[in-house]
Amino acid sequence: MNGIGLVLCLSANGCRPAESPQPQPAVYRWKTSPEILPAERAWMDSLGIRRLYLRFFDIDRSADPARPLPVAPLQLPLKNLPDSAEVVPVVFITNRTFEALLSLDEEQQKTAISELAGHIHEKIRAMEGRLYASGGHLPKGAALSRQTEPAEILPKGDKIPIPEWQMDCDWTPETRDAYFYFLEELRRLLPDSLLLSATIRLHQVKYPEQTGIPPVDRGMLMFYNMDNVRAADTRNSILDRSVASAYYNRLDEYPLPLDVALPVFGWVVVRREGKVVQLLSGLDERALADTARFEALGGAKLFRVKRSTYLNAYYLYAGDSLRVEKVEADSLRAAWSDLRMRLPRERRHLALYHLDTASVNRLNHEEIRHILGW
Length: 374
Prior knowledge:
Blueprint: H1 3-11, E1 24-29, H2 38-46, E2 51-60, E3 69-71, E4 86-93, H3 95-101, H4 106-128, E5 164-168, H5 176-189, E6 195-200, H6 202-206, H7 208-211, E7 218-222, H8 241-244, E8 258-263, E9 266-272, E10 275-281, E11 294-296, E12 302-305, E13 309-311, E14 314-316, E15 321-326, H9 329-342, E16 349-353, H10 357-362, H11 365-372
Parallel strand pairs: 1-2, 1-16, 2-4, 4-5, 5-6, 6-7, 7-8, 8-16
Antiparallel strand pairs: 2-3, 9-10, 9-15, 11-12, 12-15, 13-14
């Protein structure tokens, strides 16, 4: 390549084509309540969202390290779920679940992890059949499973089969082998036509030699919660471009195809005596304009509680400090622009996290369409 070509190539971001395929819109729902509210459904429809990453339940350790338990399952059937929606069941597994499993000897670990994969498989399959009051959503390729009852494999109307399952765990180098063995055991239980994906954090992209690459079909890059929420000097733990920039250099090397999740949520970080004691979600920030209860400190993001009071059903004490963290339209636009320049040019889903009334009110569908080019 001649000098002029090299300069042109570098200025065009390493010769990567300027435009990537249009991402497919999606959204996460991370609540247990049994209804998508009308405003939330209208927001989905207005954005053309037809893929819903739906949290089914969590898994956490129990008193018996060999028997992790499901926690906070989604209440079913889920009302107001579009008939044409693609549903991806998501299970969040705490890292301490695998830390507890490591206390067992090697054979006990393998047995317990295999049983965990089997129990999760059974529970997801049972919940899929109850998504709609009349049934309908089915795992893609369900007819290939010998465990499937005939009634389960009959599609209902034009409802789309479930194409993918997703596991969400912020694993560490210490728990990597146990978690990856779990993924292998779960993958073994699924038909080939059903994808298995795992959530990927930024630090896992930057340090794959330490954290490893999960044995799944796809990854979901969780592009949020990137700074230390407990640190007093953190500006915005949810989304901070200056923090994210430290992780960009290896994005195009990651060996898994990546979908992307971007934040549209916000919260209030409550600090008491120098420690974070609560994250308040779904807050109407206008409540903080009450000067009888709150004092603004250096702008709209920091407040001090002047007198003890309730906020979002949580009791605050006089002297507590509050830090408002949210994702502004400009920040979201810049984050997506940064990612598009650095991710490999391939088809992917772009998911918003997450679907609730506060998020819908914070960024309307027209703003999001403009930001993401949907």
